Queue: 2 jobs
Job 1
Amino acid sequence: MIHSMTGYAAASREFAYGVLNLELRSVNHRYLDIQFRLPDDLRAVEPVLRETLAGELTRGKIECRVTFTPAAAGPRAPQLNESLLAQLIALSARVRAALPEAAGLDAADILRWPGMLGAEALPLEELKNACRELLSAVLAEFTAARAREGEKLRQVMLERAEGMERLVSEIAPRIPQVIALYQERLAARLKEAFSAGDDERIRQEVALFAAKIDVDEELSRLKAHVTELRRVLADGGAVGKKLDFLMQELNREANTLASKSADIAVTRAALELKLLIEQMREQLQNIE
């Protein structure tokens, strides 16, 4: 199965104290680039999420966004920071032991102390576990979406490959006739230019030039590359880099075919081949 590098998926989980959301989105990229946007309280779960994503994905610019929205059920009663209170009592006792005449802390001082009062703390361990579970669910949907898009790209590539095969099959039978006609025209021109010339030498020059414009080898390599293209598409997996290399080879043969062409029909076919190759190159930019 072939996967696109473009995809999106999201999921959420509701708690009595709020809603946790996790979403994945990706675009094409030469390598695997994973970026996170997490609340500060959940930053500790990032290594686990990163490891999970890196184990499933090979290419693409991935953004993982986690948000938490507190429940809007009205104001919660402030909570006394018991730990901080105990520290203040101990420090106050030490100060008064050293300075017996120093005034002690009263209730108002304690309640105004920074960090003494706060809302009920969130259950961070529960939220971290929920993040991991949400990522597994989102990743399954995300991978399925990329697979569906990848199948569409595969069909587009196969259509272009079929067009290339058709063009090659149309060109191949014409080549012997093209070479023969070109030899006749070239021989006639040479004889006209060198009316007293050596016929054997003329035939040798014509044969040599005809060999230079023979594109049978290029057509054979085009067929072989298209066959390999079909095989790679059938095998699936992370094939983007393999396909990119094949496009370079196909484009090289199409360019050679155009440069050696001695027939307008062959030239037109070579240009159509280049167009199909360029269309495939555009599509494979999104293939993982």
Note: The longest helix spans residues 124-171.
Job 2
Amino acid sequence: MFTGLVEDLGTVTRADRRSDAMVFTVRPAAIRVADLALGESIAHDGVCLTVTQVHRDAYEVLAGAETLARTTLGQRRVGEVLHLERALALGARLGGHMVAGHVDGVGELMSRQDRGANIVLQYRPPAPLLRYIVEKGSIAIDGVSLTVNRVDADGFAVAIIPHTVTATHLGARRTGARVNLEVDLIGKYVEKLLGGYRPKES
């Protein structure tokens, strides 16, 4: 489980194709590699991956075929930067919202507006995800917990403050950029549970 509060920015130093999977070598900027354990979970641009190797100043993770098909990780190249967040420790503060690290779909940045202290970003999600995106609700974009400012038939908008611009790569993305989206976890479970109580169609 994660919170959507980016802990570090990691640089991809290798991206090796292994059959239908990709092995990424990531060098974090602030996270101490010596503190990482084999098998622990780290979110990479919102995608939960398992540490498979630990080196002196970097670590390796493997993204399987399903992950590559459903996220943007297959497009990541050497030199690109990823949002990193280690799994939430029991008893730690939940400063963002509950994020599973399981991407629901890939969205597209449609527009950006600089408004002094804030940058407003408009995204178009896959159509089936719109039902879970509510105004003033939470959404994870490339693993960043954000509040939805506005929702319409075409998509949704969020506003990022200067700290988020500095701590993440969201403010540097250009129009057309593809991002990983994870909608509210609770909403999905509520819908699934209530589905069993819907009246049968005649």
Note: The first helix runs from residue 65 to 70.
